[in-house]
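During the reporting period the student researcher (J.K.) took over the structure-prediction task from the postdoctoral fellow and processed the backlog of single-chain submissions. One of the processed entries is reproduced below for the supervisory committee.
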Amino acid sequence: MVRDPEPSVTFGEELRRRRMAAGLSLTDLARRTNFSKGHLSKVESGAKHASSDLARLCDQALQAEGALSRRVIAAAAKSLPDTAEPSEVWTMQLDPGGGTTFSAFDRRTAMTSVGVGMMSWVLPERSKSHGSVETVLPAFRSWLDDFRRLGQCVDPSMIIQMSVVATNTLRALISDSPGSPERSAALRLASRFAEYTGWMAQEKGDDDASAWWTNRAVEMAASGGDKDLAAYALLRRADLTLYRDDWVATLSLAQDAQARSGLARVRAHAAQREAQAHALAGDERASRRCLDRSATLMAQSVTEDVDGPVLGSTTMTDPVAFATGWCLFDLGHPRDAAEILSAELTRLPASAMRTRARYGARLALAHAQAGDIDQACAVADPVVSDMRLLDSATVRYDLRHLSRILRRWRSQPAVRELMPSLARALQVVRH
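J.K. obtained the following structure tokens:
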């Protein structure tokens, strides 16, 4: 069990104590971490704050088993914001330039204020005996597959617009058929659109919207008889906290998701999040146990119904291998991480641009942390180029870390060439 760091001793004091106990000078530690002696001295004295990258490297150099990383993470951890209450009426406005404004209102507010002065279209009455819902469901299922493919290569905002419309259209189609089998099937399908909207919102960097849409997906799935999506909602929240370096919240959410879900594949992905949380905390043995459990569950999941939540990318050949590479980096083994991630990336199709960018950024970061700067820049270059189309907040998370490392090597030609385009990729695109 990983213990929380004691708050009474500063990071710098603990770093100095462990360095001296290991018999290392500042020069020795600087050589092992690729940070300058002067920077380390300022961190130990409290004149500079330690980054998560420095903490991980010091953990590895001093065999601290994550104790230093936990101090940095605990200081920076933030709680996930509450989400909005469910609403009855959804509205979306699209401007000519492609911008989108989405709003959700309770029905009374929408009728008394929002609807004033707005043009409105009303769906015609339908005969309940026509079976129109059952007729259109195959087309919507095909759309969902198309949206998932499009989501690999276009800005999330575009997918969000289409997915919101599809979700709302399904809600409208089933509004007059309570209790019918077609209604349950349509609700479950609408929940998949809403869940994918939540994933795209996360990619866009809007955590509040991601949580809101995921909660709406859970409500619709439950109404349609699917209780497993509630467990997956915890997994989505674990994703959000993971990208805030909050290993405590990620660990709790991942374990809760595994306890609640009856689907092996949901538990498999939750075990991966648990492994990543343990890796952030520096607990290598616990992380590896979770990865082994995930591999076992993945093997069991092949017999399950494929009509379920969108668990990340469907293009990954071996999600456990990707998670292993991810964890090895956080555990302070960047060369081992780079070896695994590089092998897995070669197996991804060229069309899986978002997935390739996500794990390519982590591979570049691993190379940079290992001191292989030219290789890091070579791997990062196509990722940075693709960011103009993808605008991914999760990719940007690793690119920010990469930028901080590369600034220490700014005199190298490869770094000087990459930095201008990397800086542009780190700018958040607003729509």
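The committee noted the following: The chain has three domains: 11-76, 89-226, 319-425.
J.K. will present the remaining backlog at the next meeting.
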